Each structure stands twice: as structure tokens, then as C-alpha cells.
Amino acid sequence: MENKRYQSVLKHAFLIIFSLLMCYPLIWLLLGSFKFNDEIFSATSILPSVWKWDNYKIGWTALPEFTFGRFFYNSFKVVLSIVVGTLISTTLAAYPFARIDFKLKKLWFAILMGTLMLPTQILLIPRYVLFSTFHWTDSYKPLIVPAFFAQAGGAFFVYLMVQFMRGIPRELDEAAIVDGCGHFKVFWHILLPNCKPAMFTIGLFSFMWSWDDFLNQLIYINSVRDFTIALGLRLFMDNAASINWGALFAMSILSVLPLMILYFSAQKYFVEGIATSGLKG
Fold it and tell me: How many CB atoms neighbour CB 102 within 10 A?
């Protein structure tokens, strides 16, 4: 009994120490947001000698015309649109692969999976040329519209949803068809209510990836009024002379908060969706 207790203490101590090491950069960033500029990179102690609480106020109103409230609003508008589009398109695309038999089904699914091996950098120039032809640059359309066509991480999300749908008993479909339901009613009333864990997982991944997306936003958004959080943080680095690192760290901490709140709030569904989608096939 004592041996088991000793092993349990050692295991928990190791996990706590390892977790602190993994979280050290975030802790350093958080404490740095309360420091003066000259103390951030020169002080030997991780704790501030004097707590500078107004870094958050300074960072929030750093720009003369726009506060970070505007950037948060833009980010949420873009990200939520992408999440909605991704959920609609991936579930609609996954249903035929999971439940309907049609010609060349395996070939088309193989082609879909093959797109996962295409590096993002290969598609940057063709996409930009296409969206420039549509006159969509300097707008949110290049970020949002592809999500409604299962292009924002689409192949991975479609695969995840297909695997989950394949695990739902086909007897439910057959019973609904006997009752007179068509494919859309089977999809809407039978499959979607049972796909909530997978949809939560896809929504969470889509939110995180689009929230952290810097490159695409940098390419397609030019007006400061339309900047997202990622582009707003970059403005701190545009000052030629000095950078207010404390204010930059403060806004960086605020930019991470939505992701942390969302993840811990939906952790149960996230783990369930990943586990069940990986086991069903």
C-alpha cells in the first residue's frame, strides 16, 4: 500500500514539474505583461520588481484611431463565419462518403485525402491570383468563402466526420427511409443530432486554426480598420524606434484568452469527438 502511494506521489510530482516546464513560456509572457520595458529582458527574476498594471490599458489604446476592441470584433466576425461555413460544408460533404454508394466513390475519397499532402505554400500564389481576379483582396471574402466549400482545413474535417458517421448504425437510416424520409431528412434528423461530438471537435479546431492564422490575414487584409488580432499585434513591431514590450505582451495574453476559455469549456466534447472518430471506421 505504501509502495503504491509512493509511486503515485512520484508520478504526480513528475507531471506537475513537466507541466510547469511546458507552461513556462506562457507564464513568462504573463508576468512580462506586468513589467517595465527595461526589466523584461534584463532582470534575472521572472517576477516583476514593480508591477506595471497599466500595460493592459496602454496596449488596448495603443493606436490613435482604433482600440484592440475593434480588432477583437473583426477576429470574432471572421472566425465565427469560418466556423459556421466549415461545419455546414464538411457535414454535407461527409454524408455522401459515409452513407451513399455512388460511382467512383473510393476514387473521389482518395483524391480528397490526397489534398492533405499538398503543402499550403503551393496554393498561396494560385489562390491569390484567383481572389485578385475576383477583386476580393482587402476583404474577408478570401478567408470566409472557402470555408463554405470545405476548403478551410476541409479534407481533414471531412475525413473526421466521415469516420464518425460510419460508426452510427445504418439501421437508423433504413428505419427513417421506411418512414418516408429522403436523404436530406435522414441527414438532418438522424445523423446530425448524433454527430455533435465530432461537430464540436471540428468547430474547436476550426476556431483555433482560423484565430491563429496570420499568413492568410496578412496577405488579404490591407486596411487597418479591418485588421484582426494577429495583425493588430504586428503593429507593435512597426515602430522604428522603440517597442513597448509590456503592452505587446499584455495584448498577446488577451488574444490567447478566447482560445483557452473555449478549449476548457468544450474539452469534454473535444476529447469525445477525437476518441470516437479515431475508433470508428
Answer: 8
pLDDT per position as a tens digit, 181-233: 888 888 888 888 888 888 888 998 899 999 989 999 999 999 999 999 999 99
- Which cell numbers hold the place of 218? 496578412
State how far the Cα of 191 lies from the Cα of 123, in Å rounded to an integer: 33
What is the C-alpha radius of gyration for the chain, rounded to an integer number of angstroms? Answer: 24
Cα–Cα distance for residue pair 86/203, rounded to 1 Å: 8
Separation in Å, CA 101 to CA 53, 97, 171, 214: 62, 8, 16, 40
Cα gap 29→46, rounded to integer Å: 10
CA distance 233 to 119: 26
Q: Provide DSSP, the chain.
A: -HHHHHHHHHHHHHHHHHHHHHHHHHHHHHHHTTS-HHHHTT-SSSS-SS--TTHHHHHHT-SSS--HHHHHHHHHHHHHHHHHHHHHHHHHHHHHHHH---TTHHHHHHHHHHGGGS-HHHHHHHHHHHHHHTT-SSSSHHHHGGGGGT-SSHHHHHHHHHHHHHTS-HHHHHHHHHTT--HHHIIIIIIHHHTHHHHHHHHHHHHHHHHH--HHHHHH---GGG--HHHHHHGGGG-SS---HHHHHHHHHHHHHHHHHHHHHSHHHHHHHHHHHHH--
**pTM summary value:** 0.86
End-to-end CA distance of the chain: 42
